[in-house]
Amino acid sequence: MNSTGFEISFHKRLQGQGRHFELDIQFSSTAPRTVIHGPSGAGKTLCLQAIAGLLLPDSGRIVFAGQPLFDSSAGLALPARARGFGYLFQDYALFPHLNVRQNIAFGLRRGLFNPPRAASEASVEHWLQAFELQPVAGLKPAQLSGGQRQRTALARALAPQPRALLLDEPFAALDSALRERLREELAELLDRLAIPVLLISHDEQDLLRFGQQRLLLREGRIVEVG
Ligand SMILES: Nc1ncnc2c1ncn2[C@@H]1O[C@H](COP(=O)(O)OP(=O)(O)OP(=O)(O)O)[C@@H](O)[C@H]1O
Known about the structure:
This is ATP-binding cassette domain-containing protein. Residues 5-226 form the ABC transporter domain. The protein is an alpha/beta fold and 226 residues long. The protein has a domain at 95-162. The protein is 32% helix and 29% strand. It is built from six helices and eleven strands. It has helices spanning 44-52, 100-110, 117-130, 146-158, 176-193, 204-210; strands at residues 6-16, 19-29, 33-37, 59-64, 67-71, 76-77, 85-88, 164-168, 197-201, 213-218, 221-225. The strands form two sheets. It has a six-stranded mixed sheet with strand order 7-8-9-3-10-11, with helices on both faces. A five-stranded antiparallel sheet has the order 2-1-4-5-6, with helices on one face. Helix 2 crosses helix 3 and helix 2 (100-110) runs parallel beside helix 4. The longest helix is centred in the C-terminal third of the chain and has 18 residues, at 176-193. The chain starts with 5 loop residues before the first strand and ends with a strand. Adenosine-5'-triphosphate (ATP) is lined by residues 14, 16, 21, 40-46, 202.
C-alpha cells in the first residue's frame, strides 16, 4: 500500500461529434513532485480532471494517501471539493467579477475547511503577501499581468491548505521570460511548503524542474515511467 502518493487505475471513454477518446490510466506515485507529460491531445488535462473529481471515470480506482476518492466497485465518487486538492487550471479560471483578494478568499468560504472569518482573512493576507499581490489586491483579473494572474490563481488554490496541488500547464499562458522566472519561484515555494504536486505539461523545462517522477502519456495511456 502506497500511503503517501497517488494510486491510479481508471478507464473513461468520451464520445462526441463522431469521434471518441479512450483514457486508460494506470500509475502509482510516491515522489513529492510528479509530472505527466506528453503531446497535445494525449489526454493530460482529462487525466488530471478525473483525479481532481471534475471528470467521472467509467470504472476503476483513484486513491490518494491511502484514501479511496473514487472506487467504481464500491460505488464511491467523492466530489471535487471533498478531495482536498488545490487545482490550477490551464487558463487559471479566475472569477472575472471578483478582485484579487476576493478570488483568493473564494476557496476559503466555499471550501471543505470553512474557517472562521478572522482566520480566513489572515490566510488571504498571508497569501497576498507571499505572492507580492498586495498592490493589486483590489484589481480584477482583466487588469492584471499574466504573472499576477498566475500568482492569484496559485494563491487561491493554496489558501485552503490543500493536501496536494494539481497543476495543469501552470506556465503555458506566460511569455518565455516570465515563464522561466515563475517556474523557479514556484519550485522554490513548493520546496518550502512540502506539499505533493502533480503537474501536467508538454514543456521539457517543466519536466526537468519538477519531474522527480515522470509519466509519459500517449493516446490516453501512460506508456513510460521514469
Ligand atoms: N468531451 C469530450 N468528448 C470527446 N473527446 C474529448 C472530450 N474532451 C476532450 N476530448 C478529446 O480528448 C483528447 C485529450 O484531451 P486533453 O485536453 O486531455 O489533451 P491534453 O493532453 O491535455 O492536450 P493539450 O496539451 O493540448 O492541452 C483530445 O483529443 C480531445 O479532443
